[in-house]
């Protein structure tokens, strides 16, 4: 090993994954003086304005087996690359609502679901949200301006107001409106979901990993696929076994290990790390590792409008409706919704409206691309114990590791909120003069969450409110796996806030000599 | 690597199959995986029919033969990664009318409608998307400029040029 840190250096904190959780955690720890080795299964890729090309280069395409309602062909949309899935995220940066952190208390018991209150209150999380917003330079927060309008945002907001919505804005985006953090202001390049070619959008790739590297306390090992965690007889993690780029097994000793490998790979790694002391998987004395898999309710609508929109111009997701982001069971479901526009580039347009359609009529619709507008709805889904990640008994992937099985069956509440949201988006586009509105639910998981949930009681979850596993003091969950419940807002800002809070906790624990 | 490793793959596909080793995701065939000579995979007449299939799926008047050929190449690349798909394409070619390429547009579309549900048809659609909709020549007909990096993005006065919303909505 010829890196900055020796494989036998047990003073380092090992972070597995370099995305929103891992990248931010690594930056916060190293800036506080902690040495960090980050194991990233993927590689760094150059950013290009080619959505399909970027997807192919970074997609985590190792075999998965999907069950239930998931798209069997493409069950999850997760990146295996430096910067993680947050390389391709849209940038919408919103906090969880206070009531979303106490979903069990607010919603009551929901049959077939396993709602829980988070072990941390909104008041505890709020200062970390503020730090996260400042770090990401979120538009519309702390005095930062909103992004400017473009045709698509104007069309979306006009439709929103025509159907009665009033909480309409250009959205809270982790996109610089002017230079900040060594990155430029947005030039309305479009292609936000291809990684932002100029780096105006916050991502671990552009922001956090360079911060970590600048400290001199950071080593990023690419193509390093963690395959097993090791522990001692005192239930302390002692190191990580991983495969390097040549497929050779390597061992990195560690003072602490933080798992930020996404809500599929994090529980998978724990389940693959069983031992005599943890026969059902590491940190799994609760038996809950892998359970309560959530993916949010994400759906799309699109339409051809009477005039030209040119939705490809400018930021992809600029625009937001917040009116429905409230808990109001009179609508027929619990939880809230958000809506926003979604720019679509021409190469993806045929699949956006109807992924099965073709023929003369459909081709005529395609030729009206410049009049197209599209939108997305976001809502939380229910945590259900049987929606889970497990290891297949027989199938192995290219590493020789058990293939993860991912089961997701939508709860009735998920279906109700989906139907409601798509009906409202249909209203919106019809108010703008659309003859036909194309709608579709999303069965590829864009947000993967919940498989190592936080809890106060050790028997009710995998980790505590700091992401520290109940079973091993120096093992942490640092990604969206730790969410006990989800909500309407995309998870990234919350993952970042939790990572900053966790870094502070780890440092205090280290100073106190806990590990 | 021996041909006997692929007993289910006809010899004409062997080279393609070997080239395609490592295919893990054939959602949209990678450009780098496109292999020349779809006719080697499907036979000359098969490739010609599949080009007409691509045009029937997305029958734009301004589609070029190069775009259709590209679509068939992409389908060949996918089939090389997937023996079941390869068999399904063979089946599709058998099930289409012998004079499919000579039929008028409406009759071709009707013939394909009879095969909805075929994996080969779905794959042909994906391939046609790649062959047609990723081509800058096609973009030019629609008026889509493609990547914005060459001209520095849309920031500035041209960002808003919509003219059909009510004045107070602009």
Number of helices of chain A: 11
> Helix fraction of chain A?
10-25%
SSE order of chain A, one letter for each helix or strand: EHEHEHHHEHEEEEEHEEEHHEEEHEEH
The biggest beta sheet of chain B reads: none
Widest sheet, order of strands of chain A: 5-2-1-9-17
**Helix-strand string of chain B:** HHHHHHHH
The helix-and-strand class of chain B reads mainly alpha
List the uncertain runs of chain B.
1-22, 24-36
Structural class of chain A: alpha/beta
Give the biggest beta sheet of chain A.
5 strands, parallel
Number of helices of chain B: 8
**Fraction of residues in β-strands of chain B:** under 5%
Ends of chain B: how far apart? 64 Å
Helix content of chain B: 40-55%
Structure overview:
The complex is a heterodimer of chains A (515) and B (170). Chain A has 11 helices and 17 strands. Chain A is α/β, with parallel strands linked by helices. In chain A, strands 5-2-1-9-17 form a 5-stranded parallel β-sheet. In chain A, strands 12-13-10-16 form a 4-stranded antiparallel β-sheet. In chain A, strand 7 (237-243) and strand 8 form a beta hairpin. By secondary structure, chain B is mainly α. In chain B, helix 5 (83-95) packs across helix 7 (119-133). At the A-B interface, helix 2, helix 5, helix 8 and helix 9 of A face helix 6, helix 7 and helix 8 of B.
Keywords summarizing the entry:
heterodimer, A: 515 residues, alpha/beta, five-stranded parallel beta sheet, 11 helices, 17 strands, B: 170 residues, mainly alpha, 51% helix, disordered N terminus
């Amino acid at each position: 090993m010829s890196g900055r840190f020796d494989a036998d250096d047990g003073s380092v904190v090992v972070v597995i994954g370099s995305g929103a959780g891992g990248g931010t955690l690594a930056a916060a720890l190293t800036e506080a003086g902690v040495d960090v080795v980050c194991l990233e299964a993927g590689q760094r890729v150059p950013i290009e304005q080619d959505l399909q090309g970027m997807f192919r280069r970074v997609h985590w395409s190792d075999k998965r087996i999907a069950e239930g309602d998931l798209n069997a062909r493409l069950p999850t949309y997760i990146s295996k690359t430096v910067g993680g899935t947050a390389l391709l995220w849209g940038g919408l940066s919103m906090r969880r609502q206070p009531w979303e952190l106490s979903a069990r208390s607010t919603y009551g018991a929901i049959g077939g679901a396993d709602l829980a209150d988070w072990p941390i209150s909104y008041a505890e999380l709020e200062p970390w949200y503020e730090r996260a917003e400042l770090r990401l330079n979120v538009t519309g927060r702390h005095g930062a301006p909103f992004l400017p309008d473009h045709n698509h945002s104007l069309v979306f907001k006009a439709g929103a107001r025509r159907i009665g919505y009033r909480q309409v804005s250009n959205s809270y985006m982790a996109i610089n409106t002017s230079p900040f953090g060594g990155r430029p202001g947005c030039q309305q390049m479009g292609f936000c979901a291809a990684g932002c070619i100029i780096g105006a959008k916050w991502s671990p790739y552009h922001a956090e990993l360079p911060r970590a590297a600048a400290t001199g306390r950071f080593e990023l090992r690419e193509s390093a696929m963690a395959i097993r965690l090791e522990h001692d007889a005192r239930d302390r993690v002692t190191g990580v076994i991983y495969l390097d780029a040549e497929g050779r097994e390597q061992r990195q000793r560690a003072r602490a290990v933080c798992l930020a490998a996404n809500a599929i790979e994090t529980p998978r790694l724990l389940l693959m790390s069983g031992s005599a002391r943890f026969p059902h998987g590491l940190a799994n004395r609760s038996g809950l590792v892998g359970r309560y898999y959530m993916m949010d309710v994400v759906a799309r609508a699109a339409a051809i409008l009477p005039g030209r929109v040119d939705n490809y111009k400018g930021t992809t997701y600029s625009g937001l409706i917040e009116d429905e982001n409230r808990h109001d069971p009179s609508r027929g479901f619990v939880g809230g919704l958000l809506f926003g526009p979604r720019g679509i580039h021409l190469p993806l347009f045929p699949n956006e409206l109807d992924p099965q359609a073709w023929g003369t009529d459909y081709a005529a619709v395609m030729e009206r691309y410049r009049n197209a507008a599209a939108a997305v709805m976001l809502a939380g889904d229910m945590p259900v114990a049987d929606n889970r990640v497990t290891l297949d008994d027989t199938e192995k992937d290219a590493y020789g590791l058990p293939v993860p099985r991912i089961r997701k069956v939508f709860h009735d509440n998920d279906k109700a909120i989906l139907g409601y949201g798509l009906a409202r988006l249909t209203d919106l586009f019809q108010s703008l003069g659309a003859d036909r509105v194309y709608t579709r639910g999303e069965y590829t998981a864009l947000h993967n969450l919940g498989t190592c949930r936080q809890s106060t009681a050790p028997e009710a979850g995998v980790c505590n409110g700091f992401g520290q596993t109940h079973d091993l003091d120096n093992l942490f969950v640092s990604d969206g796996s730790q969410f006990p419940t989800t909500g309407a807002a995309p998870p990234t800002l919350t993952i970042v806030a939790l990572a900053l809070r966790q870094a502070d906790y780890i440092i205090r624990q280290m100073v106190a000599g806990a590990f | 690597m021996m041909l006997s490793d692929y007993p289910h793959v006809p010899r004409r596909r062997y080279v393609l199959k070997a080239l395609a080793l490592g295919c893990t995701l054939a959602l949209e065939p990678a450009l780098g995986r496109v292999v020349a000579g779809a006719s080697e995979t499907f036979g000359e007449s098969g490739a010609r029919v599949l080009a007409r299939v691509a045009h029937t799926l997305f029958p734009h008047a301004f589609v070029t033969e190069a775009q259709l050929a590209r679509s068939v190449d992409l389908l060949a690349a996918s089939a090389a990664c997937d023996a079941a798909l390869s068999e399904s394409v063979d089946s599709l070619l058998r099930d289409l009318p012998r004079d499919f390429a000579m039929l008028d547009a409406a009759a071709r579309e009707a013939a394909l409608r009879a095969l909805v549900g075929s994996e080969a048809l779905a794959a042909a659609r994906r391939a046609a998307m790649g062959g047609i909709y990723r081509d800058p020549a096609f973009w030019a007909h629609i008026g889509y400029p493609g990547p914005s990096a060459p001209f520095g993005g849309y920031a500035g006065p041209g960002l808003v040029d919509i003219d059909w919303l009510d004045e107070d909505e602009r």
